[in-house]
Specification:
The protein has about 240 residues and is α/β, with parallel strands linked by helices. The chain has nine helices and eight strands. It has a single domain, classed as 3-Layer(aba) Sandwich (Rossmann fold). Strands 1, 2, 3, 4, 5, 6, 7 and 8 form an eight-stranded mixed β-sheet that branches. The model has no long low-confidence stretch (mean pLDDT about 95). It comes from Roseobacter sinensis.
C-alpha cells in the first residue's frame, strides 16, 4: 500500500459510509425497479456496507452479494453482517460480476468504469427483467461557480447533467425508469462523520496525512457552499429489451 493509501484508510477507517446515501434511496430504487422480495441483489463496490441492511430489507426473502476491491472495506462490512446467511461478502472487481442478479446496486462508483461501458459490462450479469440502480455526480444547474467547476474538473472531468447521464444510459442500450436527487440528509450521513474524523486527526502527522485531511475538508466545503448546483443523481435503468 502506498503512503497515500495508508493516509486515506487512516481517515476512512470505520466510517459508516464512503459516499452520500440513505436507506430511503435503496427503498425507492427497489420500488422503481419492481424488485421482488426474493431478488438476487449485487452491491457493486459496497464500501463498508452502508447499504446492505436496506438492500436486504428490499428483498427479505432474497440474497445480497456484496463486493469491493478494498479488503479493508470488506472486512468492515463483514464485521457487521458476517452472521447473516442472506448476505455474501467478498473482495472482488465490480467489472467482473457474473450474476444473474435481479438488481445491481452501485452507489457512487460506476464512474470508475464509465456509465456506458459499465452498463454494457453488467448486461450479461442481469437476470431477465433485472435492473441497475446507480448514483452519479451530476450538475443540476447551468450556473456553476468557478470554484465548484474547478474542483470537479480535477475530481471528475466527465461529470455531466441529468440529460448527459441519460444519453450515456441510452448509448449502452438501456432506458431510464426513474431518477432521484440525493437529499441533503444523504450527504450529511457521509460528510458529518467524515468531518468529525478530520477534526480528530488534525493536524496530520505526515505530509501525506495532512494532504488527505485538506482534500476531505475542501470536498465537504465545496458541497456545503455550492450544493444547489450539483449533487448525486440516482438512476434506475433497464436494458431496452425489458
Amino acid at each position: 500500500m502506498t503512503a497515500d493509501w495508508e493516509a486515506f484508510f487512516t481517515l476512512h477507517r470505520d466510517l459508516p459510509r464512503e459516499g452520500p446515501g440513505e436507506p430511503s434511496d435503496v427503498a425507492w430504487a427497489a420500488a422503481t425497479a419492481a424488485t421482488p422480495a426474493t431478488a438476487r441483489i449485487c452491491d457493486a463496490a459496497c464500501g463498508p456496507g452502508a447499504d446492505l441492511a436496506a438492500l436486504h430489507a428490499a428483498a427479505p426473502q432474497g440474497h445480497v452479494t456484496a463486493l469491493d476491491k478494498h479488503p479493508q472495506f470488506v472486512d468492515q462490512a463483514r464485521a457487521l453482517h458476517r452472521q447473516d446467511p442472506a448476505m455474501t461478502l467478498h473482495v472482488g472487481d465490480m467489472a467482473e460480476i457474473t450474476g444473474p442478479y435481479d438488481l445491481i446496486w452501485c452507489a457512487g462508483a460506476l464512474y470508475f468504469l464509465g456509465i456506458a461501458d459499465g452498463l454494457k459490462t453488467w448486461r450479461s450479469a442481469l437476470a431477465p427483467g433485472g435492473a441497475v440502480a446507480f448514483s452519479e455526480p451530476c450538475w443540476f444547474t447551468d450556473d456553476r461557480a468557478q470554484e465548484a467547476a474547478d474542483f470537479w474538473a480535477g475530481e471528475y472531468p466527465a461529470m455531466t447533467d441529468a440529460a448527459g447521464i441519460d444519453a450515456q444510459v441510452r448509448a449502452a442500450g438501456y432506458r431510464t425508469l426513474g431518477t432521484r436527487k440525493l437529499s441533503d440528509s444523504a450527504w450529511e450521513a457521509y460528510y458529518g462523520p467524515l468531518e468529525r474524523r478530520v477534526a480528530s486527526l488534525s493536524p496530520g502527522d505526515t505530509p501525506q496525512m495532512q494532504q488527505v485531511l485538506d482534500d476531505a475538508r475542501r470536498e465537504a466545503q465545496i458541497w456545503r457552499t455550492y450544493r444547489d448546483s450539483f449533487g448525486y443523481l440516482l438512476s434506475v435503468v433497464v436494458p431496452d429489451d425489458v
